Amino acid sequence: MMLKNCPLCGLIYEHSSMTTVCPRCWQKNENDFKKIKEYLLQYPNKNIMEVSEATGVSVDKIRMYLREDRLIAVNNSSASLLDCQKCGKAVSSGLYCEHCQKEVDIEMKKAAGAALAYTKYKKVIMHTRQSYGRR
Q1: What is the tally of structural domains in the chain?
Q2: N or C: fewer beta carbons within 10 Å in the chain?
Q3: What is the DSSP letter of 11?
C-alpha cells in the first residue's frame, strides 16, 4: 500500500485499490448516498435538482453516483445528464451506452483470457529433449 493525498480534502491516507479517497471522505460519500436513497424511496421520480435541494447533496455528487451506476435516471430528459464515455450517446447511468458496454466487455474478456494464457505458460517449466532427466 502507498500513501496518497485525498483528492477531496487533501488528507494523507493509506491508499488501497478499493478506495480513491480517505476513509473520512468515503464515509461522507456513503452518508450522502444514503440520504439520496432514503429520499428517493420516499419520493420516487424526482429530478436531480429536487433531490439535490431536498438532501443537500450537490448535483455534481449526484451525477457521480449516476456515473458509478449507483443511481439511474429513468426518463429521457434525465438521460441527457450523462454521455457515453466512448461514443457520446446519452446514458441514464454508468460510463457507457449499452452498445459500447458490450464492446468493452468483449475487450475485457479478451484481455483477461490473454493474461490467463500468459500465466499458464509462465508456470510451465521447459527443457530441451536431450537435457530432460539428466540432472
Answers
A1: 1
A2: C
A3: -
User: 55: how many CB neighbours lie within 10 A of its CB?
Assistant: 20
Residue 44 lies in a domain: yes
Cell of 101: 458496454
The Cα-based distances of 77 to 56, 82, 89, 103 in angstroms read 22, 11, 13, 26
**Mean pLDDT, the chain, as a whole number?**
82
**Counting Cβ atoms within 10 Å, is residue 48 exposed (0-12), middle (13-18) or buried (19+)?**
middle
More confident residue, 75 or 89: 89
Cα 19 to its chain centre, rounded Å, is 11
> 97, 69 in Cβ contact below 8 A?
no
User: Does the pLDDT value for residue 56 go beyond 90?
Assistant: yes
Residue 41 burial (CB count, 10 A): 8
pTM greater than the 0.70 cutoff: no
Among left, alpha and beta (phi > 0; psi -120 to 50; other), residue 46 is beta
